[in-house]
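Hey, resending since the last one bounced:
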Amino acid sequence: MNIFDSHCHLDDRAYDRDREAVIDRARQAQVRAMMVVGIDLPTTQKAIAIAAAHENIYASVGMHPHDAQHCDEATLAALAGLAASAKVKAWGETGLDFNRLHSPQADQERWFHRQLEMAAEANLPMIFHERDSGGRFLAILKAHWGPERRGVVHCFSGNDQELDRYLEMGLYIGITGIVTLHSRGETLRAQARRIPAEQLLVETDAPYLTPTPERNKFKRNEPAFVRTVLLKLAELRAVPAETLASAVWANTCRLFRVSPSP
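The structure tokens again:
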């Protein structure tokens, strides 16, 4: 199989001691490609450096809603400059998160608007983060979206109505290890069965959201474990894992406009 971890944070300091070994384990698990996602200027710079040093690893540029209060036009200008790097294939992680309000709602909305504009200027697909925004995420997104835009709702955790709206807008849906968790993943398992195969992505969000059974042994998630997410989805959808892997690989390559080497 060819598996693409569409969202991980290999730049995280949790990997500073063994990053190369983590990448090697991913390759051994048939994870042939990875997207390392930036959440602010320093992590974006580090993600690009990691991607530049490895075949089939790509990077994104972006400002996470948690850090919106620290954003300004100079930071976004720097991100726009980095977006021209050869290995940068997406803009994000950006969006809205009103669950804990690490940044004020007004700041989140202001810089989400701007990043939607800047991603369009850079002609990059978008990686979205949404949590408990009470419809504001969709309202803002609709004002900027059109048939030419591309993006993924990373770590989908919304309700059925939100899922339907995302699918109608042509967005991809990123499924994490939450789908493997007994109680927390119950609703997601039902939703995952009805996502069209051509709009489905798999991801780890590593080092977070370790799937079962790996979480029984490892606290830190890593890209190799995205294989478990894929296998669970194949089980839920009653299709061969190889068939699903092929579809998800094609989806991810199409979204990010990449052609990874075998």
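The beta strands are 3-8, 31-36, 57-61, 88-97, 126-131, 151-153, 172-175, 200-202.

Sorry for the duplicate.
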